[in-house]
Design a protein that fits this description.
CATH superfamily of the largest domain: Oxidoreductase, molybdopterin-binding domain
CATH architecture of the largest domain: Alpha-Beta Complex
Helix content: 25-40%
Order of helices and strands: HHHHEEHEEHEEHEEEE
Strand content: 15-25%
Distance between the termini: 12 Å
Number of domains: 2
Largest sheet: 5 strands, mixed
Number of helices: 7
Structural class: alpha+beta
Strand order of the largest sheet: 2-1-10-5-6
CATH topology of the largest domain: Sulfite Oxidase, Chain A, domain 2
Shape: globular
CATH class of the largest domain: Alpha Beta
Bound molecules: ligand MTE, molybdenum atom
Length: 264
């Protein structure tokens, strides 16, 4: 709790320091440093952009989300939504995900596909994070996996990269023209992608990731609301623009009125 308050104070202080025209200054900084979220100018106005820019300037790559103790783990972890209905997913699930692969391509030197067994041989970590859904509920759970940054280093991210885009098994069309992609997908900027607490998780509370929580692998971005933590992952796409994916807002949820930037 105290860390959250401290961060809020810091953000407030940032705006105060920017003076009475704080938002104007933040908007100017946003423009100057390229801190424009991909949904800017579509649904959300300059205030939204200014908030994103101010948060991005004040929360560097090294500002950490709170980590909790085992005793804080919630007894009940709500599942949001149903597992993907498609046949491929259910075939892979029935086979214990032995034939599942995580594909990673786009602006990377070595486009790759990894099996679950290969990913489990990466240096593993556990983190106890709070996860909050934008719809109001939250829980604390322990996640086991590896930092996304480890994978990004393995495949060699190119310097032009600005976003990592995540597709799950409830996404369709991510192999073809990305403008026609359907279903759940989301993206994070490279600041969140390289962040040491941004992990790909295959375990939860000491077990394999339960189906409803995103088996076999999900993203956990502890500095953003739960919606950013894409479940049932199949494909990570590294890119310099999201303007050619779906409607170009950087996430499917934005098309339904949610903000792309969901920092907490
Ligand atoms: N593939 C996929 N990922 C998803 C979702 C989804 O519907 N499909 N829902 C998101 C939302 S809105 C939230 S709050 C969290 C919920 O995670 P949980 O089911 O583990 O609580 O997953 C996110 N990741
Ligand atoms: Mo959510």
């Amino acid at each position: 709790m105290s860390e959250i308050i401290t961060r809020r104070k810091l953000i407030a202080a940032g705006f105060t320091a920017a003076g009475a025209a704080g938002l104007g200054v933040a908007a100017w900084l946003a423009d100057r440093y390229g801190l424009i979220p991909p949904d800017h100018g579509h649904i959300f106005g300059s205030g939204e952009t200014a908030t994103y820019a101010a948060l991005r300037l004040l929360t560097s790559r090294h500002s950490l989300a709170r980590e909790f103790n085992r005793s804080d783990i919630s007894k009940v972890a709500p599942v949001k939504g149903e597992p993907p209905e498609n046949e491929t997913y259910h075939r892979l699930l029935a086979g214990g995900f032995a034939d599942w692969r995580l594909k990673i391509n786009g602006l990377v030197a070595r486009p790759s596909a990894y099996s679950l067994a290969e990913l489990k041989r990466f240096p593993s970590e556990t983190h106890i994070f709070h996860q909050a859904c934008e719809e109001g509920w939250s829980f604390i759970a322990e996640w086991a996996g590896f930092p996304l940054s480890y994978l990004l280093n393995l495949v060699g991210v190119m310097p032009q990269a600005r976003y990592a885009v995540f597709f799950g098994f409830d996404t369709h069309g991510d192999d073809g023209d990305l403008r026609y992609v359907k279903g759940k997908w989301n993206s994070i900027d490279m600041s969140d992608a390289w962040h040491p607490q941004t992990i790909l998780a295959y375990g939860m509370n000491g077990h394999d990731l339960p189906t409803g929580h995103g088996a076999p692998l999900r993203l956990r971005v502890p500095r953003q609301l739960g919606g950013k933590s894409t479940k049932y992952l199949s494909h990570i796409f590294v890119t310099d623009t999201v303007s050619n994916i779906g409607k170009g807002y950087g996430a499917e949820g934005v098309e339904r009125g949610f903000s792309w930037y969901a920092g907490i």
